[in-house]
Every structure is written in structure tokens, then in C-alpha cells.
DNA sequence: CTAATAATAT
DNA sequence: AATATTATTA
């Protein structure tokens, strides 16, 4: 695929994307419709949540995305979100004038893939197609994994790993030939799907890493047919992964510290830090020409996918917690994330693949790369962060954006969160043009939406984002490092697989 | 073959 | 419950 084609492809895509817009306020709805039209989407509107639900039920594949107000008289907007998101597996974007984190959190918890604040600007709407791309990309991956074994349906001798409650979206062959009855020599192996792992994480999250024991985790996860031993095993692996990451992170910090004095010398030759390994095996855009993702961690994929965040464009501060370094706030970051009696603590978006919404080319590539081999992102980023945090007003939660368009989102003892309300930042260059390099560069500093920010802290998926002011003893890792470890495994290998039981 | 990963043993 | 070992898989 040539670059031009690639760009054209992504450029063309959003045109005609079918959007269902829901808002009880007619004025808002009109405006929304107009704006969506202007983005060249195909728009269907309704002022009733109930109608929206019916519409989407009747035409299962008639919409690509739903964008809906949260407060509506006839139905709880969150209910709608949940129903649509789960039943139809459509990306749902929430719309609200409430910037209260609680609302946002709620939206995210219920599976919103984004949360836009009213009044919505067209720039934001221009970008919503990315949610669709993201979602479908994930789906495709899933189906490849499941249908991949075209030769001799290897399923026949395998028992489905039906340990998770069925995801409404993957109810295909429901033929349960419970062949449990027979001798049952070997225990089926558990395949840890992304979903299960997310639950696992949420559970660990909830009780805190130090109290995380298999039994408790198992209870919290509430997955059928999963045994305590299964969890124990996974926990073991998880801890190992954590330790490994921590150690490498420490090395990073040392290196960073050492380097910071010599920043001008971009060399680093011989240190093995900034050379690139194998190029990202996808297409052949010009991004591969220069530096591939800089890896600061070994390129082996051990433990990949163990950790929830994906993007690493911005620094993460690691926080030492009894031998393990945890990211940002200690594991259970937001007090909002509770596991309630309905087990809704594991929002539906757990089934989405996490991925930073970035400019199209990057969506497709899945990686960002630095613009030059000697480029050292984290140092610059840290510097900028410091600048930002120094300029952030200290009291109000929702302040005016600073010059860079960032708001302070929250502030706790030693950290400050930043975000921008609703913009995807540079990714608003949704229609990629010839400015990729610049774009790329901006992407590194690209701000998050509120929803993205929250999600990042929810341990369920997504972006690690809360940005702390850098302090001694904290560290930041830079783009393309943890990322590599995190991103590669879970998604491809374990999305929805069959659990094999050999029949001789 | 090896590495990864889950099961099982301690 | 934590860790070490083994078995199975890709």
C-alpha cells in the first residue's frame, strides 16, 4: 500500500459514516445534525432515547456510531449507552454539558468510548470516526483469530473456554456439546482473554496490589468456571511481569538521569538505548523510513499485555509500592471505580481494544515513532510537563485552558492531571496531509479527552494519562517503551480463542 | 527447536 | 498463599 493510497483510504472513510444522533433538546439536536453533516457523515436523528434504541435494534447494521446526550427524560442516557453498546456493539459517544468528573466517569464506566462536552465543536466531530475504525479493527482481529484455522476446524477437538460470561457480541456458535461427562482426563487450559484479564486487573486494582490474593481476586472477577488456582497462576505471572517492568524501568531512570546532563549529545551510541529493532510490520508508510519505534526495553514480548495502558506518548510516573513500581497513582487510581453489586465495575468497554486515538496513519500503524534516531522524547516531554504544571491554576477543577489548550483536571497530593476537554489535539488532523512529521511530533504531546483520561486511570483499558509533576524519585518513561511490551500480546493472541483439549 | 504460559506440586 | 516445577502449546 503506498502512502498516497493509505492516506486516501483513511481520508475517504469517514465520508458517509452512519451516525445516530440522540438528544431531547431540539436545538442541540439540530446543531449536532448540522455539524455532523458538515463532516460528511450520514446522520439520523431522534429526540428520544427509546426511539434510538429501537432504531438501532431494528437496523442492526445500519449505524456505525451513536452519539447521544446523557440527560434525557425518557430514558437514562447511560442506560441507552449500555444497551446500545452491548447489544449492537457500536461505539457510543456521550454528550453532555456536565464536565463533572463523576458524570464523565459514569459514561466511561458504562462503556462510552468518548465523552464530549457541550457545546460540541466541529473539530471534535471530525474525529469521531476514529472510534469506529478502532472498534472495527479490533473486531477484525478477533475474527481472524477465530476463523484463522480454516483447515480442519481445529475446534472440533477443543472445548470452548466458556469461562467468561458471554460477550453479547461474540455469540456465534452456541453449540455447547458439554462433553464434560466423559472421563475428562485433563483439565482444560484456561485462556486468558483480554476481557478476563481486564477483570483481573480491575480486581487487583480494587483491592490493591498488596492485598491482592487469588481468592479475593477470583471473587471479584466473578467469572464462571475459573478456579482459584487459575487466578493464582495468572497472578504469579502478573507479579513476575511487574517485577520485570519495574527493573527495566529503574534502569531507564538511571539512564535518563545520566543522560539528562548530556542532553545535547544525542549520541548514546553503544548504549543500546535508542536504536531501533524490527520495523513495525504493517504496510510501508514513510514513517518506517526513519526511526522505527525507539525501544528502551528489550523487544521480547514477555508479559506483553499485562498492563492496561497503551499509549505512552506522555511520561508515566512510576511510584514505588513495596517493591513494585506502579504507574501513577497506586493501582486503584480513581476512587470512583468501585465494583458495585451489579458487577458493573467492569464496563463494557473492556472488550474494546485499547488504543490511542491518533492521526489516521498512526491508527493504522499502531505506533508512533520519533522523528529522528537520536530524538529523546521523554526529556522534552518532561520539560513541557513541568511548564504546564507550573502554569496550571491550583484551585478550580475546570479552568481555562492554558496556551496549549490544557486544563487541569484534578489535583491530588503529588500529582496533577491534565486534559483538554474534548479535542483530540493534533489528531484533529484527521485527514492526514503532508505534514505528518509535524503531526507526529505534535502527537507526542497530544492531549486527551476527558474520557480518555479517565479511562486511562480505570485500569480497564486504555491510556495511561494522568500526568504528574515530575519529582525526585519519580520517573517517566518515554514513548514507545512500555508501550511495546504492553501492546503486543493480549490483543492478538488471546482475544477470543478456543481452549484446547486434545483428543489424542 | 524454544519460549511462553497455564497447570500442578511443594 | 507464594513459589517452583512441569506440561502443553504456539
From TrEMBL:
**Which sequence ranges are marked TM in the entry?**
none
Record flagged with keyword Transcription regulation: yes
Q: Where is the composition biased (Polar residues)?
A: 144-159
Q: Positions of the region Disordered?
A: 143-190
Regions of biased composition (Basic and acidic residues) lie at 180-190
**Which keywords annotate this record?**
Activator, Cytokinin signaling pathway, DNA-binding, Nucleus, Phosphoprotein, Transcription, Transcription regulation, Two-component regulatory system
Q: Does the keyword Cytoplasm apply?
A: no
- Provide the Response regulatory domain boundaries: 18-133
Coiled-coil zones: none
Report the residues modified as 4-aspartylphosphate: 69
Q: Which PROSITE patterns match?
A: HTH_MYB (PS51294), RESPONSE_REGULATORY (PS50110)
Domain of life the protein comes from: Eukaryota
Q: What is its main location?
A: nucleus
Signal peptide location: none
Q: Which SUPFAM superfamilies match?
A: CheY-like, Homeodomain-like
Q: Which InterPro entries match?
A: ARR-like, CheY-like_superfamily, Homeodomain-like_sf, Myb_dom, Myb_dom_plants, Response_reg_B-typ_pln, Sig_transdc_resp-reg_receiver
Q: Where in the cell is it found?
A: Nucleus
By its UniProt entry, which SMART domains does this protein fall under? REC (SM00448)
**Family the UniProt entry places it in:** Belongs to the ARR family. Type-B subfamily.
Record function comment: Transcriptional activator that binds specific DNA sequence.
Recorded hits in NCBIfam families, A to Z, give: myb_SHAQKYF
From the Swiss-Prot or TrEMBL record, give the protein name: Two-component response regulator
